Amino acid sequence: MTGRTTGLTPPEGATAPVRHPDAPAPGKSLGVHYDQCFGCGDQPGGLGLIARAGEGVSVAAEFTVRSGHQGAPGLAHGGVLAAALDETLGALNWLQRVITVTGRLETDFVRPVPVGTELHLEARVTAVHGRKVYCSATGRIGAPDGPVAVRAQALFIEVRVDHFIENGRAEEIDAALADPDQVKVARAFEVNP
User: Fold this and answer.
1) Residue 185 and residue 180: Cα distance in Å, rounded?
2) What's the distance, Cα to Cα, between the start and end of the chain in Å?
3) Which are the contacts of 182, defined by CB distance < 8 A and separation ≥ 6?
């Protein structure tokens, strides 16, 4: 994964990522960013992904591939695996305290992932250039040091909360904004395409 022809290589002048001083401590659960999220929310058929803050600007996450996540008999659907990578990468912005959306996600499927597998994901920001946030992620089978099953490089773009308000469905936007818990309001809009 060189990213040379895909725009996933940070340009000259890109800077190292900076962890926000108020970011959760390493090892702390990041919790659900939005209860209706397919990736981290408690949705039927969703991933139920659990993410924790890592060192620097990194996160670790896990999810178990269930029967409803199949593509081929007994194996995870590639789109589900890409969604898990995207969700894990998207959690990185909570450590920087920026709102981002996925601009590009390039995924390599290295080996099949059977139903029942606990997939361990690790993501990190590699560089920042203006509104562009460059990241990478790896998913491993069975343990944080297990065999690599999937990898990704991504480009996230920093946006304002208006991006969600202007493009989302009014019913969900209004409900999220009406929550009295302002941290939940901020987290609901932290990442999405």
Assistant:
1) 8
2) 23
3) none
pLDDT tens digit string along 91-144?
998 899 898 999 999 999 999 999 999 999 999 999 999 999 999 999 999 999
Task: Provide the token pair at 19.
Answer: 């962890």
Both tokens of 48, joined, read: 């139920």
Q: How far is CA 59 from the centre of its chain?
A: 9
Would you list the DSSP string of 133-189? EEEEEEEEESSTTS-EEEEEEEEEEE--THHHHHHS-HHHHHHHHH-S-HHHHHHHT
User: Which three-class secondary structure state does DSSP give residue 128?
Assistant: strand
Contacts of 115 (CB under 8 A, 6+ apart): 65, 66, 67, 69, 70, 74, 75, 76
